[in-house]
Amino acid sequence: MAELLKGLPVAKALTEQLVGRVTDLRERDVTPTLAIVRVGERDDDLSYERGATKRCDAIGIAVRKFVLPADCSQEELMATIAQVNGDESIHGCLMFRPLPKTLDEAAACAALDPAKDVDCITEGSLFGVFANRAVGFPPCTAEACIQLLDHYGYDLTGAEVTVVGRSLVIGKPVSMMLQARNATVTMCHTRTHDLAAACRKAEILVVAAGHIGTVGADAVSQGQTVIDVGINWDETAGKLCGDVAFDEVEPLVGAITPVPGGVGSVTTAVLAKHVVEAAERTVG
Fold first, then answer.
1. Residue 119 is part of which domain span?
2. What does pTM read for this prediction?
3. What's 196's domain CATH number?
4. Each residue of 134-191: pLDDT tens digit?
5. Which of 34, 40, 122, 208 could bridge across to 165 with cysteines, CB 3.0–4.6 Å?
6. Which helix (H) or strand (E) element contains residue 36?
7. Same domain, residue pair 199 and 110
């Protein structure tokens, strides 16, 4: 039976560490503050907002919400982003996406100050990830993978890692972050020839393809560590599942993240970490 790499202990440890850092900032008259920009009332946005707000409250981070109607104009959205950019008391901003199709999402993302971009929606933050520089912040989910591996004691130096997925949200950024930690990374995707063989050779397999059952028993090997980043709704089973066929894979590998309860459980803690880091950067 594989070791289950659960996210809750990771999030708890990170939260406890952040409480001390927030205390230090407050002693310097700085209250780390997150702005949440939400357009409309999408259920998934509201669910994540509740989780993020609860996490921030537990740590001592202030949250300010900027809620616009689903039929708001581009001008209203851009004015809100400008307000966030210009408010020195706001250190980080989370803007929910996708935006309604009536809005220019690319323009909205480009307008945000990278220094306040705590979930990597700007080109400035992407540059920071790819150049390994402190410009903006990496995507919360991508960093959650790194935090999880660190918590469970994995040494990434020289490790053979295969990443399945090439999005700018997870696949490409997490590949860059792993390389920055001296891992040897192979990037694959659903059109990779003999994907299963590329997966089997890895010590650590990160799966972020966005498709149920991308990785099955034929794509894993004994003793392997599998990080399943996918979150999908399985209509047949009536439950959430990842990109990995868990029931097939779990008996074969050394360790695996559950879905739900794995990487996703760490993301709000990473979001809070980014807000604290943004606040710390303002005071030197």
1. 28-131
2. 0.95
3. 3.40.50.720
4. 999 999 999 999 999 999 999 999 999 999 999 999 999 999 999 999 999 999 999 9
5. 208
6. strand 33-39
7. no
